């Protein structure tokens, strides 16, 4: 039996990484084999690309192409084979992040993004996308308190406003797979909602 593919999305500081561990444990407790991974990254080559993407300045289209190069490798090495084995795959970001950041944030046309998506994964979409949604100020405060910022995290507030708007537009476009999680609440309240959502997917 094919496993399920769950993606975690949201602007930086929204709380994605915080909840991946909870979802992993919840599903493992229900007897699933779970693989948690991330983009850009998730494979040895993808992690090298991540390092370049998070620290080097480059042309917008180079950035988009490298995101999809990392994704192509991730699908080939991890996502597709793990799903085929019946395992559940959790990814901290996937193609919705490219729409949010490279199209919404930086302005690459949606047509180009759709062409890359159709090339790299014509038949694969997440079974569930959890969009952790918070106002920018909340995300900024959480980030400032938690870590040294990378290239994306140092962007201006307007950049993240455009990313967030594109995420919400995608959620409205694909209501069947998106769940928008109000991430201003406590971690415990969010995890109670996540448990309900996951129960329905099992
Ligand atoms: N619901 C929440 N309430 C308060 N703090 C939170 C909440 N969710 C996450 N945080 C904190 O905010 C910071 C950023 O969270 P993180 O999960 O790393 O975000 P992301 O992976 O989306 O960038 C961390 O210090 C985390 O502990
Ligand atoms: C997958 C992906 C990520 N990104 C960006 C968003 C994030 O700022 C950055 C790294 O993502 P992330 O792993 O969420 O960073 P962190 O571990 O610091 O929370 O890459 C894109 O711009 N496009 C993409 O397609």
TrEMBL record:
It catalyses: dTMP + ATP = dTDP + ADP. GO terms for molecular function: ATP binding; dTMP kinase activity. Its EC number is 2.7.4.9. Transmembrane segments: none annotated. It comes from the Bacteria. Pfam families: Thymidylate_kin. ATP binds at residues 10-17. Belongs to the thymidylate kinase family. This is Thymidylate kinase. The lineage of its organism: Bacteria, Pseudomonadati, Pseudomonadota, Betaproteobacteria, Burkholderiales. The gene is tmk.
